């Protein structure tokens, strides 16, 4: 399955770089890439080079980074919580990031120029996760149920703040807020890629290290402790990894639903529950799904562009319902 994921990802990436309002033949695209790598080839004309290298490729790379981050974060969340419905938004990172982004837009904050919304979203997303964890601790420990319930409460409070900020926004700001909340990669640039890359790389490299302990945790907290797993330390480490991955993704792309929820289930259906393969495969699958969704968003209603979160929601929600029915009919539940 791993090889097939890589081949599919490369194929969709090439298609996404070539297809759009300004089509670029695949042969010319590969020739331009070889030219940039000093391996022969010929550059495109001035417009073609600008479209490919300044618009398409940053968007392709950013879609893969965001998708991989969300897919990997979803697999980790489901492993940490032992719950198939767990996804990164459970611990408040998405709504927390929305508070920062909406506040920056609604109140016209521009202290960091074009980076203000992104930085505010990232910082408030991380802060919200730390707040959820701190509020859920009792006697030096945190429990899954308490974490989930605390996350629900903090999410509700954060959404109320978002609604309050929108109340003070004007029509132009409301339009910008709505576009951000629905998710989009239309503002992709190489600086944004470089901003996300360290967080995504750190999280994606750290996640597989915990695969064996996640497999032991799947046996239950008490058996995992008897087998030498420091459950609390593992939970803290993985929540921080999930927060880093999700906050970076949401900060640059807005709120994108269902990728972190559905992709790990797809991988688990095909390859089983072992986290040694599940975590990296969920990252690759997330990159593939988001890149495909972005290609659809750009091309299905040309010259207009559909919000990316709308595409993932429209496809993800009925697919998840089918997945639920299929699993229950075959196994009698999620076991």
TrEMBL record:
Location (main, coarse): membrane
Record keyword Transmembrane helix present: yes
Single Gene Ontology MF annotation: transmembrane transporter activity
Keyword field: Cell membrane, Membrane, Transmembrane, Transmembrane helix, Transport
Membrane topology: Multi-pass membrane protein
Subcellular location per the Swiss-Prot or TrEMBL entry: Cell membrane
Parts of the chain that traverse the membrane: 60-77, 89-109, 115-135, 147-169, 238-263, 306-324
Protein name: Iron ABC transporter permease
Keyword Transport appears in the UniProt entry: yes
Organism: Streptomyces hainanensis
Highest classification ranks of the organism: Bacteria, Bacillati, Actinomycetota, Actinomycetes, Kitasatosporales
